Automatic annotation (TrEMBL):
Residues 46-347 form the ABC transporter substrate-binding protein PnrA-like domain. The keyword DNA-binding does not apply. It is found in: Cell membrane. This is BMP family ABC transporter substrate-binding protein. One of its GO terms (cellular component) is plasma membrane. Residues 1-20 form the signal peptide.
Amino acid sequence: MRRISRITVAGAATASLALALSACGSTSTSGSSDSKGDKGLAIAYDVGGKGDQSFNDAAYAGLEQAQKEFGYETADVEPTEGETDADKEQRLVSLAKQGYNPVIGVGYAYAAAVKGAAEKFPKTTFGIVDDATINTKNVADLVFSEEQASYLAGVAAAKSTKSNVVGFVGGVDIPLIHKFQAGFAQGVKDTNPKVKVLSQYLTQTAEEGGFSSPDKGKTAAEGQIEKKADVVYAAAGLSGQGVIEAAAAKKVWAIGVDSDQYKQEALAKHKDFILTSAMKDVAKAVYNLAKSVEDGKPETGIVRGDLKTGEVGLSDSNPKFADDAELQEAIKTAKEKIISGEIKVKSS
């Protein structure tokens, strides 16, 4: 386990850190270090960056937990608009060169960058969230069975709708988000075949803003609500805030994603209309990778979180959701059947 001095590096060292990362997006650090090997976890954010109230913020929560427990220096780096794979790789290389370990790319878009950086720094552990395509011995692929949590969200939607119409808004039309849509639609249909599911993707690529445009999410949700949807589930990163805003304005249910969006300060004025959130514990995955490095036994290969491990599931912060006995029983039954294998949830 690493032990660090609490002496603050001043002057040139601080300037070097700022300069090294200024070309790779903005960065915040915490803690202090007096040698390269003392530095700990670093994360590089996906589209939307810190403050998305969803995916990236969950990763940051894992970083905060690691920093607090291990008392080492951490770093978190923002993306830049229009960046290339080479830009992402340089960001990760810069962090590894400074001595951060592990270094995590938050999001599938970092696949090429993580692979390239990991090959350059074989003694550093790298992680990537939501990608399972990297076959490098010092990389942990942190992936989740999002379709399972989405199935439970579908059960909740089907039990809560009064109009028999529900909606799904996906940020970008890619296989990862197809998992959310497929699980949700299956959960709805298995619960009540009479319920219609309206589905829409905001963009074809992330570069078009599908994960970072609340206005796009709001417009899509408004369109579904006009078509009688009274429960709308968003898997769209920062764009999901617009979906929740639209649902609250029309006094229908929204279902959040990735984090417990009922509890998030930025969405507090809308929380009474957030039925639940289909969560995946990115924070736990990020923290666990940091802990494995700290313990000298780094995780590598595919590390999957699912209903059985407790790393995906539904939040129950909204009392109207938590206190609905019939709804809770339906969700419990579905969860048990998924874990036992009786229900096979589709991922596409």
